[in-house]
Amino acid sequence: MAVTSMRRFELAEWKRSPRLTDLRNTVVGLLAEGRHRTALDEALRGLRRDPEHPDGLFVALTVLAQSRTARLTSPEPLTETQQWNALLAPVTTACSSCDGRWYSTHAVMFTDNDVEIQPTNPIGLQCQKCRYTLCRDCLKAQRPTSYTLSVDAPEVVAASCANRDCGGRGLSAPVLPTGRPDVTPMDPDAIEGVIVVRDGPIRPTTEQALAVVTRFLPLIPDDAPLLHIRRARPGTMGDGAARDGLAQSLLLDLEREGVLAPASWGRSSRMHILAGPGGDGDYLIVPVERSHQRVSPTAPHAVSSPGTYTYLLQILPLRGGWATLRDPRTGDFHDGTFGALSAPPESLPGLAQDLIKRFERMGKSRRVLFFEGDRTQQNLSTDDVYGIGTEGGTALSPYSEGP
Ligand SMILES: [Zn+2]
Ligand SMILES: [Zn+2]
Prior knowledge:
Helices cover 24% and strands 17% of the residues. With 403 residues, it is of the alpha+beta class. It folds into three domains: 11-142, no CATH class; 188-289, no CATH class; 307-390, no CATH class. The strands form four sheets. Strands 9, 10, 11, 12 and 13 form a five-stranded antiparallel beta sheet that branches. It has a four-stranded mixed beta sheet with strand order 6-5-8-7, with helices on both faces. α1 packs antiparallel against α2 (36-49), α1 runs parallel beside α3 and α2 (36-49) packs antiparallel against α3.
């Protein structure tokens, strides 16, 4: 996945943006009617179109900052799934010690706002320099028991920043968002599909799958058609290697059905989630990034039916012959350099370019060996090579040892 880092939330960015004023009006109107759930759905739709947009984050936090009483008596209370959507990660505050999360009202209280926010007691305190944060429980745990002053008393400096080299003073308010360490920012529109597997004999419902997926990926319930929901037979999710094998075979199935573009394994990542948010079991989530490969101009228009092939990327070191890339710890082929795919044979040279490009950072000559069939569970022999895709090549070449 293309990894970009989450922007740090800055109070100064809370400016009125003319682009999403409609969203702001809609949400303020819905809140006035007490329709919290619909209001947050609208905010999430805005963020889905434009993740990390300050205006979308602002209205979302406005909904989340409504008093507990207002939310509990609402005819439309917020759902757990909505509240912990990954799109809200940039405005989440996480305790640096126990990772407990909450939405701090401070960021909306200190700004010009269309909605009245009830001031609430701080749920934690923060270093004003680096945002090291402790929740109320962790603050209590750090304090001698004889010390009975309320955490909420602003003059109390209960704990100091634990980050070395920070030089920040004691922890205090305001408490601003810290982001979530378990969410990797990615472009929602770049997601081609997501495999959702739950350990156990029963396939999860769409609602259960969405609860897990939206917590870690920037998607909303409207994205349900992107999900491919499966169950896992016993023992197929036991360890990392087993889960990778399971993911590979499910991806290959979806390629054969024409649902995913070929060579999806190299565009996927695997997330293992122990005891999903619903407490209904362990999950394996496999997001797949869209392929950037364009149809090769040399490929004939009438393509033959797809076959299954195994690919292996090789590099040419400065000294010696062609070599594979291996993980130094496990000895396995480096992630994304080896796998099975389903594609018409004419498209193999183009797919080789895609793989060669993906490992551009290796800075050496690269080529892709293709074998017929799925050989990911077998030993490979050079006698069985079906053809080689070379850099810039428009057709496969026969196997050779030399460059
Ligand atoms: Zn804590
Ligand atoms: Zn600090």
